[in-house]
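Hi C.,

You asked whether I'd gotten around to modeling the 388-residue construct. I have! Everything is below, sequence then structure, no commentary in between.
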Amino acid sequence: MIGITAYLGVPVQVRESLTFTPPAIPVLRWLTHPGGNTPPELHGKLLATLFGNRPVFFAALVNSITVAGIVALHRPESAFTWWFAGEVVICLVRGAVLLSALSRAAAGRPTPTDLHLAMSLLWGISIGVGAFLTIGSRDWTVAAIICLSAAAMAGGSCLRNYAAPRFAILVILLTLAPVMLAAAMSGQPVMLIVLVQVPFFLLSMTMGALRLNRLLVATMQAERDNEYRALHDPLTGLLNRAGLERGFADWRGDILLYLDLDGFKQINDRHGHATGDSLLREYGRRLRSITGPAALVARIGGDEFVILADRAMTGDAEALRTAIAAALHQPFVLPEATLCSGASIGIACTGGDPSLPALMAAADRDLYAMKQGRAEDHLLRTADRVGG
């Protein structure tokens, strides 16, 4: 699970290979909003659950068609025949829309989310209308069947849609409100018990949907936090080695830079580890600022950093190395001290073996060669001074 974007009006990536388009119709957008203080980055994952629970979904379709068919056979009247035909059409369209949405999501294409949600609401209305007609017929055999079926459908709706409590509550209400109305109009005193039972059922389903929603959001938040900690360095907030490997799998750039900070051990020894930690955080901030949001920046060791960049975004590799070196040589004004440091930077460009270990090894060799060159230059300057 990676890369969840804003929910309102933007396709949301909920898994590495599965995306769903948020509703475009304002009322459906409001109905599917999880409510509360749910972090926006979780909205896409919650939306995706409305396309899940496929066994429950298709079982409900089969059950509603079966029940409507039994009622139509038992009461061969035009109203029940039309209701059965409507149920068949609605269920077939719902199934086709769901399969289309899953297929399009897997291909990264826009999904018919509004139609999927609208068909769910229409299905709830159809169940409610069937219950109203059946109870109104005063055929208590089929009335008992349809009432049990409507209750089961409402419970299934809660189970499938609790990620969007407002939507789940509306589907339940559309399904069961006609049952209450038909019971009140039946003239049968025994049916008045429905006027007591259904409100309690609605209340319990509403409370259940809200509770399950809170549990789901808490679980998703915990998963998100755990994944972030697993992929990021806790000190700098940059990617760690595992995060770098994960990011490299989807990377389409062509430059890898390997950085080794100059004199970091001496800074730690002289000023203490707290100052060293502050310096590392500042290094991370400067690297992110220089390379931009498209680059991947990782801290893979104590004072070692790796950057995955794209020449199309950052320019020539040598120019990028020069810009980074210049920025890191600027003084770091920390609460503890003002420090001057720098970094040795090696470069590797894609070509040949494109694996991350191969690129890092090539950049490390380039870094070592730069250090060797600087050491030789230092020896030559020292020799010149002595000779002079």
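If it helps when you're writing up: The two ends are 65 Å apart (CA to CA).

Thanks,
B.
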